[in-house]
Design a protein that fits this description.
about 15% strand, disordered N terminus, two-stranded antiparallel sheet, Glutaredoxin, 10 helices
Amino acid sequence: MNRRTVLLTGAAALVTVGGFYFTRSRAPLALPEIGAAQAQTSTGAEQPASDILEMTLGAADAPITLVEYASFTCPHCANFHDTVLPGLKSEYIDTGKVKFIYRDVFFDRFGLWASMIARCEPTRFFGISDMLYSQQKEWIGSGDPAMIADNLKKMGKVAGLTDAQLDTCLTDGAKAEALVAWYQKNAEADGINSTPSLVIDGKKFSNMSFADLQAILDKKLAQ
């Protein structure tokens, strides 16, 4: 939707994961407060941004590397995953022509929560991502935080995650801080200011149709 990305620099751009409770069997689980300042200065046992797992599809030695920057709360990203990604996957990723890397962009706390759900079990990441994008309007609903939290947990359970797994992932403050720092580092390095954005072999492109993307990829493959 070409919304400006808010790069998380200092206390002025605090991303909050707290503010309400996820519940399981009436037992409240408080989520931590997450901010960029915390992520940049945290030490000790907390997880560094460099430890965040890259979510990839395709052959590691594919001739083209395509990085998508997207947010689970971005409508244009949902449209990209509905209209562009299927063709990209079947014609380029699955055929060994493109290595695809998905990188999160966090506009808001809800996108961060969704990412923590999707990353709860790495082998299920892209399946859960598909659910998050295809059902984006439904799980965001009216924007009520408690409702969104409940919807996200339900989606995680549909994907095969247990209550225990979800509770562990959603209350992992170190992981949340690392995700915020990782997002900031990547977005600054690649000059990301809108979503979805594509970085193809180091060159940034804005959202586009599958036909336009196909033309770019085919030209590179012909070189």
